[in-house]
Design a protein that fits this description.
By secondary structure, the chain is an alpha/beta fold. It has nine helices and seven strands; from the N terminus they run H-H-H-H-H-E-H-E-H-E-E-H-E-H-E-E.
């Protein structure tokens, strides 16, 4: 049975060290479940992926999402496959990871995603607008990492009606299922203002939109927090890239 977690703040990494030091300091927590430990330590992961671990905390994120052996996981915005590589190992041969990307990501994400799916029996790739996606039933976990801010774009065709998308996720998840969202925080109260310039979003906007779809707000974690980030620089600015102050939220479909 899945653990139902109350709203909590989970302590995490303090970004006082340099990026180089952080890249060499990640240790898998002692209480990590076997399936998650296997995924993080898998030889399938590249050196480039491992170099990001201290600033992304992969084991902690997968534990927060409650990823279990045999789970069916929907991964929105699988671009780069940092988490996809972890997920396919964590769910095992009896589980499944369905990558779902927006059509506008084809030019940089399409071919790698098709190749990844072809190389993994427990992964599939779908490229479809999120307001048209037909998600399966009884999904265990849905993830969206560093992409919620990209759901509103200059092009109306590339933008997503988030109320409709979140409703589709709600319908797809089984009761008690997990919806994990991680994103770069913008200034409080800014809403969607900075998504096209800084690639950041007001954390409260995510909370308001997802709970409006019927989800319970289960976990507000500070494991990827960076108090030194003033949230006024673009997430690609060299001084902050890789260590932005990030929202880490878990929402659950009520039982």
């Amino acid at each position: 049975m899945r653990l139902m977690i109350g709203i909590a703040a989970v302590s995490g990494l303090v970004f006082g060290a340099t990026l180089t030091m952080a890249q060499n300091s990640y240790v898998v927590p002692a209480d990590t479940p076997a399936n998650v430990k296997r995924a993080v330590e898998s030889d399938a992961r590249t050196d480039e992926q491992r170099a990001r671990d201290s600033l992304r905390k992969p084991a902690e994120i997968l534990m927060l999402a409650d990823i279990e052996e045999g789970d069916y996981v929907i991964e929105f915005a699988a671009i780069g496959h940092y988490y996809t590589t972890l997920l396919v190992d964590a769910v095992g041969t009896d589980g499944h990871v369905e990558m779902v990307d927006m059509p506008w990501t084809e030019r940089f994400g399409g071919e790698p995603a098709r190749a990844f799916a072809a190389g993994h029996d427990n992964a599939t790739f779908t490229q479809v607008h999120y307001n048209q996606v037909d998600l399966p039933d009884d999904v265990d976990v849905v993830t969206m990492v560093l992409f919620y801010h990209d759901l509103t774009r200059e092009s109306a065709e590339q933008s997503v009606d988030t109320a409709d998308m979140n409703a589709r996720v709600f319908t797809a998840l089984k009761p008690g299922g997990t919806y994990l969202i991680v994103d770069h925080k913008a200034e409080d109260g800014s809403g969607w203002r900075d998504v096209g310039t800084l690639h950041r979003i007001d954390a409260q906007t995510i909370i308001d939109e997802v709970t409006a779809a019927g989800f319970e707000f289960a976990v507000n974690s500070d494991m990827l927090a960076n108090p030194a980030d003033g949230r006024t620089l673009g997430m690609r600015d060299p001084s902050i890239r890789g260590s932005t102050d990030r929202a880490v939220f878990v929402f659950r479909k009520p039982m």
